[in-house]
Amino acid sequence: MTYSHNKLPKSLVEIKAEVPWEEFELYHGQAVADLAKEIRLEGFRPGHVPPRVAEKYISEEKVLVEMAERSIRDVYIKAVQEHNLQIIGEPKVEILKLAKANPFEFRVEVSVLPEIELPSYQKIAEKVERKIVTVEDKEVEDTINWLRESRKTSDGAIPEVTDEFAMSLGDFQSMDELRASLKEGLQKEKETKEKERLREEILEKIAKEAKAEIPLALIEREKQSMLDRMRQGVSQTLRMQFDKYLEQAKKTEQELLYSFGEEAEKRVKKYLVLRDISEKEQVVVTPEEVEEEITRISSYYKSIGAAERDFDPERLKEYTEGLMRNEKTMDILEGFVKSNS
Asked: Which family does it belong to (predicted)?
């Protein structure tokens, strides 16, 4: 058996193979044995018809097709392992020649994770500016006024700004304590938003300069994920059937999917870039860290059993590990940003 491995545009790989008849014929016995299980003959229990008997009732074409499937699987697995291909999506198979006493020829086309040509991501991160965030007194007073409005009585009266009002809101002894607590909360909120903005800018700029051919399979998968998230958002936030939403928006699902194309490609590229950086920085997430995080997530549920009912345990571990690896990688990139001090 001989095969060739060729790279195609858009991160596709082509595997072309030719299997000599002498090698291909070795699949004949098992192919007939498996097809025999489908034969129903009087005098034999279902699935127990001897292959030598069943072969009389199986067409030559059907046997060749079964042999071809086995040969394709073996060659495909061999090529994937020998070339360390990171497969995404289902392979497309094209049979080029299938005839008795002739070499079997076929080709397989499949998407693989692309090779990423990363820019100097440390230098890019160093040039991103971290903004200093502060909380003005007016923001605190605006929050207090919002709280007062939310406590408006049935006759429209708004509570006065007094220590008694502060005590009615929680464990505060005075308005000064309330103001200090609100200011601290607003500060943390702003710092969190700035951290998210900073990380997004870093990754956006690195991805923009990175070079990669994004597989169409990943773009299509992300487009579908975006559509699913929109469908869920419409249901939970707007309390509306998605079909009704589409009708009001005068859009079809296909039109929405098409409109997601550019954004989906950007998201996939950022994901691939982050993944590649994590490998280069040798980011490791230990099983203990994953278990600890899963326990923390499960604490939001009434019991571990409730969490397991909502999430498949193995998928939850895989998902959690991915999130933690991304978080550690972003910590590294954020660490390259120069201090404002």
From this structure: Belongs to the FKBP-type PPIase family. Tig subfamily.
Name 93's bridge partners: 108
Residue with tokens 């995404």: 88
**DSSP assignment of 152-203, as one string?**
--TT-----SSHHHHHHTSS-SSHHHHHHHHHHHHHHHHHHHHHHHHHHHHH
Tokens of 238: 């707007």
Give whole-number Cα distances, 119 to 114, 125, 127, 265, in Å.
15, 11, 14, 18
pLDDT (tens digit per residue) in 180-232:
999 999 999 999 999 999 999 999 999 999 999 999 889 999 999 999 999 99
The 3-state DSSP composition of the chain as helix, strand, coil percent (nearest 5) reads 60, 10, 30
What number of other Cβ atoms are within 10 A of residue 193's Cβ?
A: 12
Q: What is the model's pLDDT at position 135?
A: 97
Structural domains in the chain plus CATH codes: 2-112 (3.30.70.1050), 116-194+205-212 (no CATH), 214-276 (no CATH), 281-341 (no CATH)
The contacts of residue 251 (CB under 8 Å, 6+ apart) are: none
78-82, 147-151, 296-300: which has the minimum mean pLDDT? 296-300
Q: Token match 């409730």: residue? A: 306
| 3 pLDDT tier (thresholds 50, 70, 90) | very high
Check: CB of residue 13 under 8 Å from CB of residue 3.
no
Band of residue 307 on the pLDDT scale cut at 50, 70, 90: low
What phi-psi label fits residue 309: left (phi over 0), alpha (psi between -120 and 50 degrees) or beta?
alpha
Neighbours of 141 (CB within 10 A): 13
List beta partners, residue 268.
none
Burial category of 203 from C-beta neighbours within 10 Å (exposed 0-12, middle 13-18, buried 19 and up): buried
Q: What is the three-class DSSP state of 299?
A: coil
